[in-house]
């Protein structure tokens, strides 16, 4: 019901833009909300689609289609020639679910429970993957720096592209390996017991129709949002980087934030961890590499070379603090506060830098 | 008894300075010892004061007043226009207790016990806080670097100040959250069982009188020490940074070193961890932010932007090695040797750089 | 038997070089294989020698003599005036066993076993030592950067040498401490139960004769390999750094790769960990410091200042991912895939940078 009624938000941005002559900031904000709603519909349709297949194919579908709305927005921003804003959006998605989402969920869960626990084994895998994320996203920047300053100063942009393409392919392969691991060979350990039997299953045509319609809608909204980005940043006296890391990132994270808090209240911390940390990991190991490949196909190449040191620092900080907190298999309210605190402090730094 | 007799060291530095015309190096060394003794008295008085209140208020008092001597010395050094020496002093306090103090205690404890154990839960919190320290102290430097080199080269010193003030406020709030957590909501887990019933309780007037007198004394000594700093560094052929990181830092750490070794011999490793790691954390989350706020109030602003990469590296290294060693809830003599080894190696680097 | 027949590879490189006029690339490759074989013989002789002494002296012998072939090759490369290639070789040895060797062994072991386990206590020590490696190899670079850019720009190469010598001495002392710890005071915990009773013990004269002959042979081959290095790199269109990190490093790691896979098939994961991680640690804490000392004695000084940021990043990444994977005391096939993935991604970066 809630999901249906939220659809009313979708036509607001196009209406404001095409029917009224209104400052772009309103189009921007309405568009962000619209994409957020459509992203949630796309995920719902993908989950339903997965019920028509086995869990392994379903997992693959869910990963490749679940982030279509974020990808769409990023592609339109990229088409505006702003790769650094897309990098900021990727960073923002990682810290948005990994720090803010997880932190809020832990605090909400910690209000009623003195301590919440989850399987250490699952935490161990998430922890290793977070370190992989850290290495994968820092590596191209380090290699670029090395080539530029140390080994052969000069034009290295061509190399950056090849390096990014190869690293992206490797990350996607590793993610496929992870799916085989969690959905096939070690399925019992990672079963989250997420029950959606209560919901009515959609027929196949409905899944596909919703996917197509929501994707088309997301494209329209993304066009409006990316077009209004610079004007909105100016109106709010904010940098486009700050907009990317805090606001554009909401598109991919807002639905996760709500689910995480929802499951935390039901004391299902394992599921909360999978959603929040899993979402951060998916952004880094799937969304970012896909963007590199897609952007190269459309001839508007984006590399994996994050040039803003703050992006790299935020990703590294998230990996380390989440590892420290998830390492012992249990959480208390203060650990949630710590995560939110780190998010706030990073936000302050992005505001000033 | 020992504490009383150590008071005899306090008047030495003023006497040397005002009565005799003696090289400043002796005034400096005597002053350091004097502040060390007064710092211990201030902590004793604060602990006593805490017995007149509940544990929560007591904890808050102990945190805010316990480091008055260190703060005093840092403020005087700052008034001499040497913020980088204060940064070195902060770094030195962190590595002094976190590496040297903890290492010595573990070695001393390991001589008699094959292995010493402590509650993993407590270690988990310390570990998370150490990572917060790492993020908090590196972040301003990264943001400064970003603003200076990447986004808008030019004058960014004003921004550094605002950023440091906001981050400092956030850190102090997080530390208050930590006190609520350890002293109120999850008090049972963190009770150290530190018994001081044997000691006679001081009446309230005595606590306040000792606090006032010791603080005044520390101010006098700090004035002498900061005045003699540059001349002493020159006489010893050492940089002022090395003096800050190794010698000035002793003021805040010497008492902790003795307590840590003392409790290690009694096989109370949990308490040793709380003292050493807790002290490192407190310097980063309380002393450094307070210095930023105080220095701004007196119009001689110090930022949180640690400009010396070695300071940042030393803090990061301490956080990582302490995490690796404390992570499994037990220690052996070699782990203590490792901590001392890292301290020595860092000291060598500070000497050369 | 295998070991004996492999000896046939040793005379190939000298024959190719002195008897035929053949492109240097074939001499280079044959020389690498020859040194690899001799390195294995040197290790075998050292292990045999250790059986004539107690375990403590044996451990010391094994550490100091076991890496003679790698040291020899590095010294000849150094004599060619290429310290950065030696740095690459050191990095390559660390990631070669720590990532590739361990990863292959875990995958091979994971094919038959759903999960393999090992003592967490031993993992804890390896984890702490890896962090020490990280600190020790990054520190000189940070100190050099600090001195060069921040405190006193100018000629700092003399300081780098003194710093490297002192840090090397400290690392060697810490390694001796580690030997005392694992072979004397806490021997029971670290006993690997590696049985070599089946093999016939060599008499003392045979140990010494094999050591001397193999070392002399390694010197001859190393001379040929280092002489053919630049020409081979040019013929293969590769940088000498890439050659160092991927190919020269094989000399020290190839035997470990085979042993690790061998023991993984026997489900002896604890031993695999000791071999792979232990070998990485030994390269950093023994081979690198010894090279600094030896290179200084022969008047061709090499410092510990790794100037290639990718080297530092590869070492840091290895320490972090191995820690994340080994931390929980058990492994599955996907963790092995992750390690190999990180190795591949680092290799790609070394190729482009």
Overview of this structure, please?
The structure is a homotrimer of 353-residue chains. Chain A is mostly helical. The first copy, chain A, has a single domain (2-352), classed as NCX, central ion-binding region (A middle domain of Talin 1, Up-down Bundle). In chain A, 80% of the residues lie in helices and 1% in strands. Chain A has helices at residues 2-6, 12-19, 24-50, 55-66, 68-79, 83-112, 120-151, 157-185, 187-190, 204-235, 240-248, 250-265, 269-297, 309-326, 333-352; strands spanning 116-117, 330-331. The first copy, chain A, has a two-stranded antiparallel sheet with strand order 1-2. Chains in contact: A-B, A-C, B-C. The A-C interface holds A 120-121, 124-125, 127-132, 134-136, 138-140, 142-143, 145-147, 150-151, 159, 162-163, 166-167, 170-171, 173-174, 177-178, 180-181, 185-186, 323, 327 and C 114, 239, 241, 307-310, 313, 317, 320-321, 324-325, 327-328, 332-335, 337-338, 341-342, 344-346, 348-349, 352-353.
């Amino acid at each position: 019901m809630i999901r249906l009624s939220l659809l009313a938000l979708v036509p607001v941005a196009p209406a404001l833009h095409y029917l009224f002559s209104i400052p772009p900031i309103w189009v921007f904000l309405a568009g962000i909300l619209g994409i957020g709603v459509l992203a949630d519909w796309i995920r719902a349709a993908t989950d339903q689609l997965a019920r028509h297949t086995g869990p392994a194919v379903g997992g693959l579908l869910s990963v490749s289609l679940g982030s279509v709305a974020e990808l769409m927005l990023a592609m339109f921003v990229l088409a505006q020639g702003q790769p650094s804003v897309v990098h900021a959006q990727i960073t923002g998605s990682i810290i948005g679910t990994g720090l803010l989402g997880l932190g809020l969920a832990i605090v909400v869960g910690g209000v009623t429970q003195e301590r919440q626990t989850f399987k250490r084994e699952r935490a161990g895998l998430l922890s290793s993957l977070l370190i992989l994320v850290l290495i994968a996203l820092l590596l191209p920047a380090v290699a670029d720096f090395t080539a530029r300053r140390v080994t052969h100063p000069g034009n290295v942009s061509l190399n950056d592209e090849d390096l990014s393409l190869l690293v992206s392919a490797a990350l996607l392969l590793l993610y496929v390996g992870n799916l085989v691991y969690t959905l096939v060979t070690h399925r019992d350990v990672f079963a989250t017991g997420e029950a959606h039997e209560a919901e009515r299953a959609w027929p196949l045509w409905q899944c596909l129709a919703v996917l197509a319609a929501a994707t088309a809608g997301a494209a329209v909204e993304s066009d409006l949002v990316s077009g209004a980005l610079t004007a909105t940043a100016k109106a709010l006296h904010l940098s486009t980087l700050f907009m990317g890391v805090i606001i554009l990132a909401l598109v991919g994270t807002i639905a996760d934030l709500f689910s995480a808090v929802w499951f935390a209240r039901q004391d299902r911390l394992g599921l909360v961890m999978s959603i929040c940390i899993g979402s951060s990991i998916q952004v880094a190991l799937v969304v970012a590499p896909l963007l590199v490949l897609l952007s190269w196909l459309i001839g508007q190449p984006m590399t994996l070379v994050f040039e803003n040191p703050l992006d790299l620092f935020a990703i590294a900080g998230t990996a380390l603090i989440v590892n420290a907190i998830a390492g012992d298999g249990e959480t208390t309210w203060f650990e949630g506060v710590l995560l939110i605190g780190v998010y706030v402090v990073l936000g302050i730094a992005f505001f000033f830098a």
